[in-house]
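Design request, tokens follow.
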């Protein structure tokens, strides 16, 4: 019925008639410091396309619809716990503290009081594997169900098995155990099949096995990987589920791996937008954070950055070399061109800032022209202030708007005008100079 080896081919899709066997508990290990990162951050807090790495993994866990998610925290636990807040509306996420990090097995041991004697089907993930897909995890769970009281684990055969634990097969080709690279013999290091650190266990046997782990190994750590050998020794099935899209296997241990993960996730994000009708001219130099919404027909020219919390309408034009900073909203047809930065701002329909501008903390109406070199001076050294620019205003080149200030409908500023804080450029008025003052408009046709 099920072969000894299940191969998934990319792009991963889940086509199984039986419904996915939902896990009862998902455990995510996120207590480690990540010494190989050399940054001092909690590793799982590494920024990845607009959110911390752990958020990607928690989202995956929730996609399996488990009854609960236990996140093991330790190093900088408060920061990691704070990042978990708000990720699940159903509030299934609980944290377990591993005060001292004595290995992945020890981390899971810390969950024993929460797990109880029969935690049902348990999925175990590491917080440093942000590229896994829900499809792979669903297959893992379905395959575990087929073993009845056994376990399943994800494996891969990457070109470079750097740092991964190797899968050791027994005489009958079943999985006998996992050996960590640091404990492996020269012969074992040549094994190509690696452990991705993603498991689905019969929870009862997991709970029985955990107290039996020992730290007699090269790293003096309790390895959860030793549980695999225990399943096999007890005559329970250990089913390897191989993934063939190598990018899913990226485990982030160093900043080099973080960059690889970012590139792979970025490609997924940009492709999703392109398939929804966003014209991304050069995906390789376009950065779009997780969660950004973009309407169809928007054109993004090369070397543009769109940060988290942004919402871009349809038919907009962005770039080249545009920086759409956090929490920017562009209404339909708005344009942000070369060397323009926006932040916490809204541009109304068909408004334009085509060259060299900074727009911060601004609410800009429809059909406004923001001239080249315009600066919204939103920061007074202590606080940020808001600027409001009403519909059809025209800001001349080099205008400086010292916030808080505002313009009325159809207002104009002359080139290099400095609108000082607290000023309001009245509807239809023209203000010029430094500090800017109202100037009578010439009547059309007069000399
Ligand atoms: C682990 C596996 C290895 C596998 C690889 C896949 C073990 C012993 N080894 O190695 O077989 O090929 O992942 O990426 O499991 N953590 C804790 N508490 C601890 C130690 C670690 O929470 O005491 C967390 C870390 O924060 C991290 C995860 O567990 O998110 C994995 O730890 P890491 O040290 O990165 O394991 P690897 O050496 O990569
Ligand atoms: Ca790792």
């Amino acid at each position: 019925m099920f072969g000894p080896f299940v191969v998934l081919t990319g792009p991963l899709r889940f086509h199984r008639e039986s419904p996915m066997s939902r896990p009862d508990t998902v455990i995510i290990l996120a207590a480690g410091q990540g010494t190989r990162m050399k940054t001092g951050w909690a590793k799982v807090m590494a920024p990845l396309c607009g959110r911390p790495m752990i958020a990607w993994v928690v989202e995956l866990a929730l996609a399996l619809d488990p009854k609960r998610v236990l996140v093991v925290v330790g190093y900088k636990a408060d920061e990691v716990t704070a990042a978990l807040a708000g990720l699940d509306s159903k509030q299934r996420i609980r944290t377990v503290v591993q005060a001292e990090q004595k290995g992945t097995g020890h981390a899971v041991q810390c969950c024993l009081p929460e797990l109880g004697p029969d935690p049902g089907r348990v999925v175990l993930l590491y917080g440093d594997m942000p590229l896994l897909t829900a499809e792979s995890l669903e297959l893992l769970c379905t395959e575990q169900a087929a073993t009845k009281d056994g376990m399943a684990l994800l494996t891969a055969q990457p070109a470079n098995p750097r740092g991964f634990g190797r899968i050791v097969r027994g005489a009958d080709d079943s999985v006998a155990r996992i050996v960590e690279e640091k404990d492996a013999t020269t012969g074992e290091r040549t094994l190509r099949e690696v452990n991705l650190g993603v498991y689905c266990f019969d929870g009862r046997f997991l709970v029985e096995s955990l107290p039996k782990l020992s730290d007699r190994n090269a790293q003096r750590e309790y390895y959860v990987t030793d549980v695999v050998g225990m399943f096999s020794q007890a005559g329970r099935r250990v089913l390897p589920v191989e993934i063939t899209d190598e990018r899913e296997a990226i485990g982030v241990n160093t900043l080099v791996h973080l960059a690889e993960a970012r590139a792979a996730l970025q490609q997924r994000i940009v492709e999703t937008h392109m398939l929804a009708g966003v014209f991304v001219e050069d995906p390789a130099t376009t950065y779009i954070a997780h969660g950004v919404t973009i309407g169809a027909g928007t054109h993004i020219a090369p070397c543009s950055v769109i940060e988290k919390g942004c919402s871009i309408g349809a038919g907009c034009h962005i770039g080249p070399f545009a920086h759409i900073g956090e929490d920017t909203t562009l209404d339909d047809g708005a344009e942000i061109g070369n060397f323009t930065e926006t932040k916490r701002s809204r541009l109304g329909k068909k408004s334009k800032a085509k060259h060299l501008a900074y727009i911060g903390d601004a609410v800009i109406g429809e059909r406004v022209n923001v001239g080249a070199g315009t600066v919204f001076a939103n920061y007074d050294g202590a606080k940020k202030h808001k600027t409001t620019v009403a519909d059809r205003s025209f800001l001349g080149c080099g205008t400086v708007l010292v916030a808080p200030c505002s313009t009325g409908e159809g207002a104009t500023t002359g080139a290099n005008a400095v609108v000082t804080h607290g000023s309001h450029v009245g509807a239809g008025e023209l203000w010029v100079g430094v500090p800017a003052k109202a100037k009578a408009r010439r009547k059309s046709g007069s000399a």
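Comment from the thread starter after seeing the answer: thanks! The mean pLDDT is 93.
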